[in-house]
Design goal:
By secondary structure, the protein is α+β, with helices and mostly antiparallel strands. The chain is 26% helix and 28% strand. It has 3 domains: 221 residues, Rossmann fold, CATH 3.40.50; 190 residues, Sandwich (Jelly Rolls); 101 residues, Sandwich (Jelly Rolls). It has 16 helices and 31 strands. It is globular, with a radius of gyration of 25 Å. The two termini are 38 Å apart.
């Protein structure tokens, strides 16, 4: 196997801007102190507004010690009591371990107005030079003269949840089940925090990155926005995250050059902007920021007008890897129909998806749809029996089509279709974004990495399974629906799906020369599925050439329009391939 050239740390190299990035708390606070001195006021209000998940025990001492404020306020001291907050959001959290209902709460609802007024009175009476407001919602207390925003990528928040060192905001639950903490973040906290953050975009003076403990970096807002502006004007990649899984495999260790001592890697989140980070590179300093900020700041340029109009400032396409090479089967599962997810979870659309097979072992297979003439009631009964009695496992092969899979097969999985990848299969999963909504029906009797049984949702699943998606229907509609749509000198384009119920379209290109593409006013997400290296170029030099490597996922902003992809360096004159997804 060739040496991996997969880039695990892709970054936008920010050019043509004054290098105003500050690292370490001493340099950061020196800059803020200089800013304070430049303000011709007797009293200067500094606010450190935070995304839930930053480490208060790191930030508060650093800022208090070096700013020495006359008055300090932590928003945790003016929030509502924990029991009041829980009562307010209880309907959103539900009693389920995984699923909740999307929150429409505003940040103001989480605070005690009388306490805010009391702090405002103290600020008015303060005789000192510096007032320091800190925490989630700090800028609500008073209009700051200097506003620093301490952001945090969601995947890092999840890591902190797992460590049991972090609970939900304003909640003493650091030791609680990780899935419940994640649920509260996903359905409530992050929705509220995103609305608040977006409202501050025009006021922020500095962005603070504290993703790596005790290694903070701070950017001026001008440089931060310039970094995002450059990113949206070129092809780019978000930062992939690799994670273990109960069924995980070994393929990504070699292809992506991962830690060989880890027992397995099951997931790679290679393009899930709601969770991934984005790196902005200034000289030799890398600044990490949530990639959602790019979506929030430049939705029209990135997504395209018709996509933005349909989905709002939300990235609707997801690419990720599922590695079972040397591992086990994924959970046997089904995704909710659009009408079901709308009625039960207040989500506007569902997780339609597909499996593109990047690699396969000799016994590779995919479970897809149901066998003809099975008894639905008996299948549900067998699933429930297996869930309650480990001595009676569910016989998936009795009910589901188990279809042999080979490299470059494409299996389409519209919502309501039972499915899972079998062992020894390397899947590129192409799907819509609401990825949390998987109704597991059977998990082969396994425990999760937390040593707890993985959640199974037969009661939800049985209401959305499309029982008529039988063997013949699956063969006719969901397996390798490949049609050649165009060709030219050294390239051809194929339509590979998706199903007509799905809003994502996929096209595969095989090429030994430059293959032409056009975004057609939709963000394009692609993966190099064959070939060691390729290069993306603009026919009119709108952006600089952008190099990608095997198995890397990359994004083409909608407004870039026409572009080409050709083999590069070691792949010149060799057959390369990409799979592309966009919104119809």
């Amino acid at each position: 196997m060739p040496v991996s050239n997969y880039d695990k740390f892709p970054a936008t190299i920010v050019k043509n801007c004054k290098n105003e990035i500050f690292t370490g708390y001493q340099n950061i606070l020196n800059k803020i102190n200089l800013h304070i001195k430049s303000i011709d006021k007797e009293k200067v209000i500094v606010a450190i507004d935070c995304y839930p998940g930053v480490n208060d025990n790191e930030l508060i001492p650093a800022f208090k010690q070096r700013l020495a404020p006359e008055l300090f306020c932590n928003t945790l001291d003016i929030k509502l009591p924990e029991e009041n907050i829980f009562a307010m959001i209880r309907q959103n959290l539900t009693d389920d371990r995984v699923f909740g209902v999307m929150s429409c709460h505003k940040i103001e609802q989480f605070f005690n107005n009388n306490k805010i007024k009391a702090i405002q009175n103290r600020i008015n009476q303060c005789q000192g030079k510096i007032v320091l407001l800190y925490g989630f919602g700090a800028s609500l207390i008073a209009r700051p003269d200097i506003l620093v925003y301490a952001d945090m990528p969601r995947w890092e928040i999840q890591q902190r949840f797992r460590s049991n060192k972090l609970g939900n905001w304003g909640c003493n639950n650091s030791q609680e089940d990780i899935l419940k903490k994640y649920k509260r973040g996903f359905f409530v906290e992050w929705r509220v925090a995103d609305r608040h953050k977006i409202s501050l975009f025009d006021q922020i003076d500095y962005f603070l990155d504290t993703t790596i403990a005790e290694k903070p970096a701070m950017l001026t807002a001008k440089n931060y926005w310039q970094g995002l502006q450059q990113t949206v004007n070129q092809p780019f990649r978000v930062v992939p995250f690799f994670d273990r899984a109960p069924w995980g495999g070994q393929w990504m260790k070699e292809i992506c050059d991962l830690d060989r001592s880890v027992d397995n890697y099951g997931w790679c989140f290679d393009c899930v902007p709601e969770e991934n980070s984005l790196y902005l590179q200034f000289g030799n300093i890398r600044f990490e920021t949530p990639s959602t900020n790019l979506v929030f700041k430049h939705p029209s340029l990135l997504l395209g007008e018709h996509v933005y109009g349909r989905f709002g400032a939300e990235f609707p396409i997801r690419f990720d890897f599922l590695d079972t090479m040397g591992g086990g089967n994924l959970s046997f599962q089904v995704h909710p129909l659009t009408e079901y997810i709308q009625q039960n979870f207040s989500m506007p659309y569902t997780q339609d998806e597909s499996y593109y097979i990047l690699d396969a072992g000799p016994d590779s297979s995919v479970y897809l749809g149901l066998k003809t003439d099975i008894d639905p009631a008996q299948m549900i009964q067998d699933l429930e029996t297996a869930q309650n009695d480990p001595k009676q496992p569910f016989n998936a092969g009795k009910y589901a089509n188990n279809i042999p899979a080979k490299k470059h097969d494409h299996f389409l999985i519209p919502a309501g279709t039972t499915h899972c990848s079998g062992a020894n299969t390397m899947v590129l999963e192409i799907s819509a974004t609401p990825y949390i909504f998987t109704f597991k029906l059977w998990d082969w009797g396994r425990l999760g990495l937390d040593s707890l049984p993985r959640p199974v949702h037969i009661n939800h699943g049985k209401h959305v399974i499309q029982w008529d998606r039988n063997t013949q229907w699956v063969n006719n509609n969901l397996i390798n629906q490949i049609q050649q749509t165009a060709s030219g000198d050294g390239w051809k384009e194929e339509r590979t799906g998706l199903h007509r119920r799905e809003f994502i379209e996929t096209r595969r290109h095989w090429f030994t020369a430059a293959a032409p593409h056009c975004t057609e006013d939709s963000v394009n997400v692609l993966n190099l599925i064959e070939g060691r290296q390729a290069i993306i170029e603009s026919p009119d030099h709108t952006f600089e050439p952008f190099e990608v490597h095997y198995a890397e996922t990359f994004i083409i902003p909608a407004h870039l329009g026409k572009y080409t992809i050709r083999p590069h360096d070691q792949s010149v004159d060799q057959m390369c391939g990409t799979i592309k997804a966009y919104i119809r």
